[in-house]
Specification:
The chain has 630 residues and is of the alpha+beta class. The protein is 23% helix and 24% strand. The mean pLDDT is 93.
């Protein structure tokens, strides 16, 4: 029947497209020399950057080496530095302590020496020869410096000289460059009055009156900052200095900041300290004197020229940081309230794989499995331990992990590499090499492509595997491990490779494949933010159509890139009226609820190839032979 004339204008908004998720980023946790604890704030993209933020290789842990292999293999990492906490639920109970002293120091006297004064003190427990007042205050102060220089514990002692008037500070460089030397029992006796003396080897920079200007501190706790070289060098005048912090064992770790002081008051410029605090990966800086009235007017700065005659003699090193108690598995499993351990990654959502790659501890793996499954956007990688060298021990180690699911990979086999420190063969975990492979494949082909096998899973910089099940003779053992969904590193045909792209999905579904689980994770990352963009839009048929038109190009692109072999989007995108709705209902839409059914057929990946070799007689044609063979 006829309808009333109408002009129907539909606006199709094609100005938005789904976001493209970041790929190639993984989460790791373990001990490092330096860096903030439980603060994976920065995406690390190179070994050079890792060293700058977290320090270099350790003799006590493989973790930095494992990170190096991941980074040099193409992975990007968020790194959570793990340390021991006496109470993992309380972030204030970190056991390591920060470097708080220097291997140099300043001896500061509060007033003038007078006739008949005698001055005594000890250096590292050894008594300094008594100094008796001679001529005047400055002459006596110089005599103290001379007496100190005569001690084996002291490399140099120099008075911080002034153009006129009395001087009060002796800058001291000690012979021990690895730990903080203390001066104690400072006594001034005799005479009509007795001034007091104070020794300080903290990280506070002072003027020549002994007044505090600014201080520095290591960026974080731990003994990894011990040994960093600190110098305050005059550049061209009494108010311009270069503050340098360097790793004497690694020339690439080298920071330099220009310190500008007001000429009259010698106050530190606020912008200088802000630059340090915004950019340094080694130290923080704090201003102490805030106004000219805080300081003696025109008083110069005690800097490194007073610590020796040559640059090497003037070096000062951080000291007194402690490593804290032994790290326990609870330091890794962490706490959700304190955001420690694995929960330090709670606020980040750009990772794909997560692991404590050095650990093969069931408690950690159980926590990792639960954590990844609760989030649904990560896969936890559980290293089964290189001591598991039989199928029964590997399967047993896997079965000790309760709560297994599609967001868990269990992997064994290990790797043999050339140790970069000793140049000998070293056995390590394979986890971060898998992360490197995953990043390579994600960036080149997509997260839905396996990072295992001879095409995508070859580990080029390994000399072998610890426990090899890759030979033809070990096929039955490798098959047993496959039946338990255990990924392995194997040596086959002269190549070290990852083998068996399995998750620990217990339902035997398509999600038992890492590639399929990652494909689903990718879809979550694409669709989630895109659909959130329609929140508070009108819940209408037009919006259902706009949703489909927004996601459709990406869904087609993923189809063409083998993320799946077929898909169907059922979101009432073709509905013209309420009567056409199949998935949604007018009543629910009126309440602001939209429903979409997204069906996909995951891509399968070749797992078995069967070839029949048919040997025929000379007179038999191939058509006949083929028919007989079939």
């Amino acid at each position: 029947m006829p309808t009333s004339p109408i002009v129907d204008i539909n606006v199709v908004n094609q100005s938005t497209r789904p976001t493209v998720p970041l790929v190639g980023v993984h989460y790791v946790m373990g001990p490092t020399a330096r860096g903030k604890f439980n603060a994976p704030e920065e995406i690390i993209t190179s070994w050079t950057q890792f060293k700058r933020v977290y320090g270099g290789l350790l003799s006590t842990s493989d973790f930095p080496l494992l990170c190096r292999r991941a980074l040099e293999g193409g992975a990007n990492l968020r790194v959570s530095r793990i340390g021991h906490y006496t109470d993992i639920t309380d972030a204030s109970t970190l056991d390591p302590t920060a470097s708080s002293k220097l291997t140099t120091g300043n001896l500061v006297f509060a007033g003038d020496f007078v006739s008949s004064n005698t001055i005594d003190m000890t250096v590292a427990g050894s008594a300094m020869p008594t100094v008796t007042f001679t001529t005047d205050h400055n002459t006596t102060l110089a005599a103290i410096a001379t007496a100190l220089e005569g001690m084996a514990e002291v490399a140099s002692a120099k008075v911080a000289d002034l153009a006129s008037g009395n001087e009060y500070v002796i800058a001291i460089n000690f012979s021990d460059k690895t730990s903080a030397t203390e001066i104690g029992s400072i006594t001034v006796a005799g005479g009509a009055s007795q001034t007091t003396g104070t020794f300080r080897n903290d990280m506070v920079f002072i003027n020549k009156a002994g007044e505090e200007l600014f201080s520095i501190a290591p960026l974080a706790e731990g003994d990894g900052y011990n040994g960093l070289r600190v110098t305050l060098e005059r550049i061209s005048s009494n108010n311009t200095f270069s503050l340098k912090v360097q790793d004497p064992n690694d020339s690439s770790i080298n920071e330099s900041y220009q310190i500008t002081l007001a000429t009259s008051s010698y106050l530190v410029d606020n912008g200088t300290l802000a630059q340090i605090n915004n950019s340094s990966t080694l130290i923080t800086a704090t201003k102490i004197a805030d106004t000219p009235g805080d300081l003696t007017t025109g008083m110069g700065v005690v800097h490194n020229e007073y610590l020796g005659d040559t640059a090497a003699e003037r070096w000062s090193f951080m000291a007194a940081g402690t490593p804290g108690g032994a790290i326990t598995v609870s330091d890794y499993t962490g706490d959700s309230a304190s955001k420690l351990g694995i929960h330090s990654f709670d606020e980040y959502d750009d990772g794909w794989l997560i692991s404590a790659p050095e650990l093969s501890h069931a408690t950690m793996h159980i926590k990792g499995a639960s954590y990844a499954n609760a989030r649904k956007d990560l896969i936890y990688v559980a290293h089964l331990g290189n001591s598991n060298n039989t199928t029964s021990t590997l399967v047993g180690a896997k079965e000790a992990i309760t709560g297994l699911n599609e967001h868990v990979i269990t992997v064994g086999g290990g790797l043999k590499i050339l140790d970069p420190i000793t140049s000998t063969i070293k056995e390590i975990s394979e986890v971060t090499d898998l992360m490197a492979l995953s990043s390579q494949v994600q960036n080149a082909k997509g997260p839905w492509i396996p990072f295992t096998g001879p095409n995508n899973g070859v580990i080029g910089n390994a000399v072998g595997v610890v426990n090899n099940f890759g030979s033809k003779a070990s096929y039955d053992d490798l098959n047993i491990l496959a039946n338990s969904n255990i990924m392995m590193t194997i040596l086959r045909n002269g190549q070290v490779m990852a083998w068996g792209g399995y998750t620990q999905d217990t339902t035997n579904s398509q999600l038992q494949w890492v590639a399929t689980t990652m494909m689903v994770m990718y879809l979550r990352r694409v669709l989630g933010p895109t659909l959130e963009g329609f929140i508070d839009e009108p819940a209408t048929i037009q919006t259902l159509r706009r949703i489909y038109e927004t996601v459709s190009p990406t869904l087609e692109e993923l189809l063409n890139k083998d993320a799946y072999t077929a898909y169907e989007w059922n979101g009432d995108q073709y509905a013209k009226s309420d009567s056409d709705l199949q998935i949604n209902t007018p009543s629910l839409m009126q309440q602001g609820q939209l429903k979409i059914q997204f069906l996909i057929k995951p891509t399968g990946f070749v797992q078995e190839i069967s070839v029949d070799i048919v040997v025929t007689e000379a007179g038999v044609d191939f058509e006949t032979a083929s028919a007989l063979a079939s």
